Amino acid sequence: MRILIVGSNKHMPENSDKRKDFERACRSIGKTLAESKVEIVVGSDRETSADRYIVEGAANAHIASKVKGTLPTVWISRPESGPTPFDYEPKYLNDVRFRFQRSAGPWTAGRVPQIIGTDAVILIGGGDGTFATGHIALALNKPVLLIPHFEGAAEKLWSVFEPYYKALGDGLDEISTLREKWQAQNADLVLTSAKRLIASRVFDVRPRVPMGLLLICLIACLALWTWLFAQTPYVTQHIPSTYSYFLMLSIAGTLGTILRTSLRLIKDPMAKFSWNQLLLELAAGLLLGFALALLLLVGSITISGKADALSGAVTDASSDFRRLSVIMTLLGLGGGLALEQASERVSRWFDQQFKSDLQKNDAGK
User: Fold this and answer.
1) How far apart are CA 191 and CA 193, in angstroms?
2) Residue 4: how many other CB atoms lie within 10 Å
3) Quick one: which of 42, 116, 124, 177 has the fewest CB in 10 Å?
4) Is the separation of the CB atoms in 43 and 85 below 8 Å?
């Protein structure tokens, strides 16, 4: 598990008790996360930032453990500009395993990959940058745990995130404890609350795919295609092969659309599932697969002068059925999975065909 901590005490009076409590709280959080083998993500080492004291707490965890070879992992994630944090303080190198990530652009842009690479975000105190981080994390559907006691951005954001905490039921009462005066046991509460937010997925507002229904559809399509392909003698003797080819084309188009939707949701963390989009892509995929099959027939007519590409009238019916089945399946998968490329190819062919027919008509006149 990897957690990003963002915050600062710039809004607190210097040498105030609250600033000292802030530093102690950050150290205890860093120590608790390190002891639980949680990877910590920070981006600065300024004395006013929470990052510095979080790292100090992680280092203290290793010092207290007295176990060699179990250094806590701290990721330094920040923009390209600026010096490397903690580079001038080698005392941390013996007790912390640093990992560095640089991103292009200013801090505002750098926050996006920083947040995407973590499982949750903890905000403590902070100013405008912390305030923006909370909204960015919310847009990216990442769990955010606020520690409002130290005021600043974390306190201002409470009304925004409270509805999400309410979805946890009694979890709201536990997290509300972080609004009160900081206590030593609150560090453990921070860890357990962060884990609970991650596990509950209350921040993931994307409509969830009814995986049971999608899985049943996927298995049914695969089973039907496999049966048609494996039962070649039965199909070739009892079912007109042309019907089987176009049925396999439809199955492949459905499989291609399911694969396309799954890959989009996996690759893009901001992608949202939509039944309307799925059905539109399925319709487009099936029609494009059908159009590609027609192009195959047109090619057969052009070459042989006969529309027997799918007739199955060959010496070895079983071999020809399997060969054409694979071709039709690839056409269906291409139509469903690669909508843009298939659409471009079909459009280009029809455009060329219409231009050719117009030129012939003009020549005939």
Assistant:
1) 6
2) 26
3) 116
4) yes
Q: What domains are there in the chain, each with its CATH number?
A: 2-200 (3.40.50.450), 211-364 (no CATH)
> Which residue type does 61 have?
A
Q: In whole angstroms, what separates CA 231 from the centre of its chain?
A: 40
* Cα separations in angstroms, 221 against 214, 257, 262, 289: 11, 12, 16, 16
SS3 string, 173-200, reads HHHHHHHCCCCCCHHHHHHHHHHHHHHH
What mean pLDDT is predicted for residues 121-130? Answer: 92
CB-based burial, 98-118: b 16+ in 10 Å, e otherwise: beeeebeeebeebbbebbeeb
Positive or negative torsion for Cα 171, 173, 174, 179: positive
Quick one: pLDDT at residue 331? 74
As given in the structure block, the two tokens for residue 47 are 């004395």
For 159-183, what is each residue's pLDDT tens digit? 999 988 888 877 788 888 999 899 8
Strands 73-79 and 120-125: unpaired
**Tokens (6 digits) for 34:** 């390190």
The pLDDT tens digits for 10-64 are 888 888 888 899 999 999 999 999 888 999 999 888 888 999 999 988 888 877 7
Q: 133, 6 in Cβ contact below 8 A?
A: yes
Supply φ then ψ for residue 47, to 5 degrees.
Answer: -70, -20
Pinpoint the alpha helices (H) of the chain: 17-35, 50-65, 107-116, 128-139, 152-156, 158-166, 171-176, 186-200, 211-230, 232-238, 241-267, 275-304, 317-337, 339-364
Partners of 282 in the beta sheet?
A: none
Q: What amino acid is encoded at 139 in this protein?
A: A
Q: How far apart are CA 166 and CA 168, in angstroms?
A: 5
Residues 133 and 115: beta-carbon distance below 8 Å: yes
Sign of dihedral through CA atoms 212, 216, 222, 223? Answer: positive
